[in-house]
């Protein structure tokens, strides 16, 4: 049997239009009552509300869409909760409040869980290739039906962030998130979806994100689309097409299909609602295929050693946003920026190491700590390096003095 994926197009984003759009999308998939079996104990709606940015930035999901979905589930007489655990520490631990999710949940009369704060349980992944267990909030294990409400957006590390990637927000331990990146986030996402695969995947592409996402410098793009289906791999494959990518270009989507979690074969996907060819924009910019490519300047080279997206996002924002572009014309030297635990020093020229996972270079190279490190701290080192200054920071001076005084 073919996997069914529904696409619905909206011209405007008022409350009634979004409600009607969602209803039409779900009707094309069989209707909410058919999609969620009546014996379901508890539904988890997992929206992508990972950063405190409003939905029209292309970064988070439209809150009205979440509200309408929750109301439909409640009307069907099924218990429902909302939960999210993603986000960077630098945005604070109350991202859900800042974004308006707390207020929304209160108005809807449903519990909202910040998975970073809950009681944790370990869940085994028997078939896991890279990870054999994950730690999630206990409440996640009490839910027998997960609905992913993802955003249609690009991602500097995974190329896209859609339904499968949205499940990473179930993880409640920062340590585990970092481990995912070190082990290979694409394989780890597939392992996570082996145990927590959404039974209904909705992607909000009313306003998507193109360029280097999932934060600025990524740019919002008005698409007016809702996409959904019961096979999250097929839904993500269709979204990849809308983003002008072939589904097998996206490693974690391809791996998920190979693991039998769904299909990316468009011949095995029945598309209902809009025609796929009618909703693919003429242009959609995706991130560079490698992390090294996030630097738009030849004179600033990125040496990537499996960094987490947190570090990549910071670097991309700095290089594409705050970096003084006129400096490139005047630059007399190149700078290599080492990022990620597996980055290796070359030993010549201006090199800097950033992030706690490279603390082994402290005292040997100009080094900026932090996990992720603050871009205004390493930005000034990069700029000094381009100006041809021999970059020295306090750690190096201290280390040199220590060596000097220790020598007989
Ligand atoms: S410093 Fe950056 S790359 Fe290293 S563990 Fe922290 S976030 Fe990941």
TrEMBL record:
Top-rank taxon, per record: Bacteria
Pfam family for this entry, one: DUF362
InterPro entries the UniProt entry points to: DUF362
DUF362 domain residues: 43-241
Protein name: DUF362 domain-containing protein
Native species: Aerophobetes bacterium
């Amino acid at each position: 049997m073919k996997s069914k994926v529904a696409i619905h197009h909206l011209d405007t984003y008022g409350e009634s239009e979004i409600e009607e759009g969602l209803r039409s999308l779900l009707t094309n998939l069989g209707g909410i009552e058919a999609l969620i079996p009546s014996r379901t104990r508890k539904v988890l709606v997992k929206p992508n509300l990972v950063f405190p940015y409003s939905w029209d930035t292309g970064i988070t999901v439209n809150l009205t869409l979440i509200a309408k979905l929750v109301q439909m589930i409640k009307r069907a007489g099924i218990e429902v909760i909302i939960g999210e655990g993603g986000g960077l520490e630098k945005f604070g631990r109350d991202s859900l409040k800042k974004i308006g999710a707390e207020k929304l949940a209160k108005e809807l009369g449903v519990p909202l869980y910040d998975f970073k704060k809950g009681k944790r349980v370990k869940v085994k992944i028997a078939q896991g290739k890279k990870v054999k267990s994950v730690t999630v909030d206990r409440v996640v294990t009490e839910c027998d039906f997960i609905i992913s409400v993802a955003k249609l957006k690009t991602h500097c590390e995974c190329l896209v962030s859609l339904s499968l990637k949205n499940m990473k927000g179930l993880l409640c331990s920062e340590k585990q998130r970092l481990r995912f990146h070190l082990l290979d986030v694409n394989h780890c996402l597939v392992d996570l979806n082996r145990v927590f695969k959404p039974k209904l995947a909705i992607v909000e592409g009313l306003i998507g994100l193109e360029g280097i996402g999932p934060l600025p410098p990524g740019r919002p793009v008005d698409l007016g689309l809702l996409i959904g289906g019961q096979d999250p791999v097929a839904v993500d494959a269709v979204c990849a097409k809308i983003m002008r990518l072939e589904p097998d270009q996206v490693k974690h989507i391809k791996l998920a299909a190979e693991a039998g979690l769904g299909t990316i074969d468009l011949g095995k996907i029945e598309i209902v609602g809009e025609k796929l060819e009618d909703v693919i924009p003429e242009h959609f910019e995706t991130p560079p295929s490698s992390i090294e490519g996030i630097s738009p300047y030849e004179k600033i080279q990125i040496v990537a050693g499996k960094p987490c997206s947190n570090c990549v996002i910071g670097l991309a924002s700095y290089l594409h946003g705050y970096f003084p572009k006129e400096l490139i014309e005047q630059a007399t030297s190149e700078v290599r920026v080492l990022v990620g635990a597996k980055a290796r020093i070359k030993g010549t020229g201006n090199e800097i190491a950033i992030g706690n996972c490279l603390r082994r270079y402290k005292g040997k190279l100009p080094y900026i700590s932090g996990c992720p490190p603050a871009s205004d701290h390493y930005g000034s080192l990069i700029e000094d390096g381009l100006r041809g200054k021999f970059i020295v920071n306090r750690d190096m001076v201290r280390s040199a003095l220590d060596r000097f005084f220790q020598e007989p």
